Amino acid sequence: MAEPVFAPCVVIPVYNHEHAIGTVVGAIREQGMPMVLVDDGSSQACADVLQRLSTAPDVTLVRHERNRGKGAAVATGLRTARERGYTHAVQIDADGQHTVSDVRRFVEEARQHPDAVVCGRPIFDASIPRSRYYGRYLTHSLVWLETLSFELVDTMCGFRVYPLARTLALLDGRRVGARMDFDTDVLVRLHWRGVRTRWLATAVRYPLDGVSHYRMFRDNVRMTSLHTRLLLGMLGRLPLLLWRKVSSGANA
Fold this sequence. Notes:
It is built from 9 helices and 7 strands. By secondary structure, it is α/β, with parallel strands linked by helices. A 7-stranded mixed sheet has the order 3-2-1-4-6-5-7, with helices on both faces.
């Protein structure tokens, strides 16, 4: 039987990043990667920039009539990528915080491990707010408890490559966080389903255009709700997770 074709693209959720998205798209185009841009209900200024970018043959533009959140935009992008015949999708942010030149390195790792999620292990510079830096470690600790594993090194970095078949099987089967909670939620739930992860170090800075859509109170409340659900979900999966942990230890 012939090996399945490996066909990757890049998915970028966009919400009012008209000053940075052109630079990001240009850098991705230099690497020869096709793109799906998802306009998540942006302002007219950003919508106009995206419309101009979408005239290129390697760019597909999908629009949400209203802002539905980063997670919903990523999910739309992943489904669009699958409809167009792609097997894997690189998720990357529109604000320029990720090292776009690493896209090809992530894609090659996915080519070697097509059933895994290839995830960025962020290396931050001084631009990251201290509150965000230390808050990440609380999330890391909760994720390790929710999975009974240290495999998920950093679930908050939105630079990763998804195997579309396995990821969409999850998204089509249950509700996953639609906003800033998406990145952690989807990775924990894929881990519960036995999807492995690969980790690549990558530099991250905050952000190229000075626009952040993270809202301290609202999104912290959302993340607290997410971890409450995940902890309850972990309890229901406790026998399986313990068996997996014991089995991996025995095979080490």
